[in-house]
Amino acid sequence: MNSQAIKSDYGLVGESAAMRMLNRQIRMAARCDLTVLISGESGTGKELVARAIHLQSSRAKKPFVSLNCATLTETLLESELFGYERGAFTGAHHNKKGLFEAAHTGTIFLDEIGEMSPSSQVKLLRVLQESAFRPVGGHLEISVDVRVIAATNRDLAQETTTGRFRSDLFYRIAVLTINTPALRSRPSDIPILIQYFLDQAQKKLTRSQKHKIEDHAIAMLSTYGWPGNVRQLRHVVDRLVATVSKGATITVDDIHAALPGTALTATSEIPLIYHENESLDQFLDRVTLQLYGQLLAKTGSHTKTARILRTDRVSLYQRIERARERLQLA
């Protein structure tokens, strides 16, 4: 694969139908100044999408600040978002500017917004409604002009029905919605991502000879389910580059070492796991590609794989290509 042909829009790599749709949604969101809710599984690049929206918007030259709402307690979260006045609590020895104030005229990205406490949700809603807030311990309101982009791996619409998430806040942040596709739903992008991450990882090393990866290893990686999505694939490639000798070709054995005990083992049974919103045809196409990848990794030959499956090599090739095309267009 020619790495020069790889096109990376703000770190979003891929040529599948799902990625083309995602890039269209990003461009649409960038043209307006509405709040955006990005949903998707962990590791699918939600912050990259938020940054891409910001960098293509009229606020591109203004601040972009981000905060993971799941990493802080309620008190610390509010202090980070709104800042605090000196003496507001023990240890508050000076005034501190919050992220909303720091993001003035720019964009604030709130990752894992579904983890916010009910109290924090109320305060965030007020900022969205009035474009103003009070620092913790403060009495004067600070007006801000900030675009809010939020992200979640939860089903917030469902959580509004249980009271876990405020419905008024949900409708306020979900004016525009974007879903980042899981890596398993765009298998045709996996070889492109592998080469992209190989090139990125190589730049971090002082080695003059670049790694290559054999076709069988790419086929094996392309059929894995990737529960950690693009983030997991990137970490696996980084590990391979760090552990495989310089200039060497990454093999199937190296993949097994990097992902021990997974469904990549060619002799293991294929786990028939149904993915949400997947049609029967999509399920069968995905299992077909997984079976093909596992047998190819075991036999090392397309012809031998066809023989095991009691078909001719041309018919098998056509079937695999049709499955790949259908999954890419789904």
Characterise the protein shown here:
It contains 14 helices and eleven strands. The protein has 330 residues and is α/β, with parallel strands linked by helices. The chain has two domains: 32-181, Rossmann fold, CATH 3.40.50.300; 184-329, Helicase, Ruva Protein, domain 3 (Orthogonal Bundle). The strands form four sheets. It has a five-stranded parallel beta sheet with strand order 4-5-8-3-9. A two-stranded antiparallel sheet has the order 1-2. Strand 1 (8-9) and strand 2 (12-13) form a beta hairpin. Helix 5 (118-130) crosses helix 7, helix 8 packs across helix 10 and helix 9 (215-223) runs parallel beside helix 11. It is elongated, with a radius of gyration of 23 Å. Mean pLDDT is 85; it is low at 1-5 and 265-270.
- Give the full name of the CATH homologous superfamily of the largest domain: P-loop containing nucleotide triphosphate hydrolases
Q: How would you spell out the order of helices and strands?
A: EEHEHEHHEHEEEHHEHEHHEHHHH
> Main beta sheet: strand number and arrangement?
5 strands, parallel
In angstroms, what separates the terminal alpha carbons? 25 Å
Weakly predicted, low-confidence segments:
1-5, 265-270
- Overall structural class, as computed from helix and strand content, comes to alpha/beta
The number of distinct structural domains comes to 2
Number of strands: 11
Tally of separate helices: 14
Indicate the percent of residues in helices: 40-55%
CATH topology of the largest domain: Rossmann fold
CATH architecture of the largest domain: 3-Layer(aba) Sandwich
Strand neighbour order, sheet with most strands: 4-5-8-3-9
* Broad CATH class of the largest domain: Alpha Beta
User: Strand fraction band?
Assistant: 5-15%
Shape: elongated
The average pLDDT value, as a whole number, equals 85
